Amino acid sequence: MAKVLPDTAFAPFGPGGLSTGDTAWVLVSAALVLLMTPALAFFYGGLSRQKSVLNMMMMSFGSIGVVGIIYVLWGYSMSFSSTHTGGSDIGGVFDNPFSLFGLTQLTQTREIDGQQAFVAGGFGTVPAIVWVAFQLTFAVITVALISGAVAERMRFGTWLAFGGIWVTLVYFPLAHMVWGGGLLSGSENSIAAWLFGTTTAQDGTVTANVAPIDFAGGTVVHINAGMAALVLAVLLGRRTGFGRIVFRPHNIPFVMLGAALLWFGWFGFNVGSEGAANMHAGLVWINTTVATAAAMLGWLVVERIRDGHATSVGAASGIVAGLVAITPACGSLSPIGAIGLGAVAGALSSLAIALKYKLGYDDSLDVVGVHLVAGLWGTVAIGLLATDTGLFYGGGIRQLVVQLVIALAALLFTAVLTIVIAFIVKPLGWRISKEDEHTGIDETLHAETAYELS
């Protein structure tokens, strides 16, 4: 039987309650972010070889299927249920997965002053079920991002099993810790509060004096996915021929199309995280645009100096690096700061992708070099560039310390649990055979080919 929520969880549309404008914008943003996963399929698919493009795209689409169902059943409950029910979380790490299981409670209504009232969610200006839709799309693409590190060699069924377990044991707890009032947030019992103390507001709310900043997912999405990708790439092993043959993208127009659609969808990702259609959302839009443009140029400059050519794949990859880096910082920087952050992100990621050859791990499509490196830079750079609390703006070192701590905590949490999950699913069989890898994973696993050339 569905748990009855307290009356304080409900609000009608209108003054002091829910906003139709904000609700409309968050719904549009949710659709934009959902589009990002098929966009990622094009981006990753184009970067893959011809004989593995379908499998690569299927891994993104498979993430939608698995994570979409799980999120409705227990994912949102594990991440945010205590914000609705008034209950306590479990050790600051995750909420009760059964408190809002299946989301039936979030469809309850009340009548307040003659108006129909709905369960509020997010920042309180949209119905909770709308906020669920938005957050669901974040969980989907985070899992899909990891797939780029295991391209061309991982069994599809094992990938789906891994995705379902990983999103439950890693993504949902980290989302709660950062956004749901847990250990990596600015709440009373968070790490930030232990470091620098707390402040009590007039309404009795207790928060950390210096709260971590992760506007739209630097830790929860990009550091998380990037670290998981590194673990899987190491445990799964290299593709046959890695280091001896060149794995060239089979369809660069697909890569460019995917990057374009990712940039388009990312406005839902970042601007939608404001939870409202207001002036600050406009600042987030501008920062997202200029940081991405600067990152593309930063990547191309490094390519030109290092390789003698500025490439279209480099431009597309620089776009993604800039989007990743600005994600946690887009609400805290000035446009000038966003340009600087983006330029550094593009250059750093362009340099970082060569590490896999020096260190010997096969991160097939550079998830580590782009998402982990740019995600770390964007998260930590807030401590330098945030206009209110950043070191370069006279805010001292405390914000930088907090950002470093949450980034390192996210790295450690993800690394340990991903290793554990990898061994849980190992009996299912990680890799296809060398013969199947040579023939092509599309044909051997899916009985399809992307192009009929006969």
TrEMBL record:
KW Transport (keyword) present: yes
Pfam families named in the record: Ammonium_transp
Main location: membrane
Organism domain of life: Bacteria
Record's protein name: Ammonium transporter
Stretches assigned to the Ammonium transporter AmtB-like domain: 24-451
Subcellular location: Cell membrane; Membrane
Segments crossing the lipid bilayer: 24-44, 56-74, 128-151, 158-179, 215-237, 249-269, 281-302, 309-329, 335-355, 367-394, 400-425
Family: Belongs to the ammonia transporter channel (TC 1.A.11.2) family.
Keywords of the record: Ammonia transport, Membrane, Transmembrane, Transmembrane helix, Transport
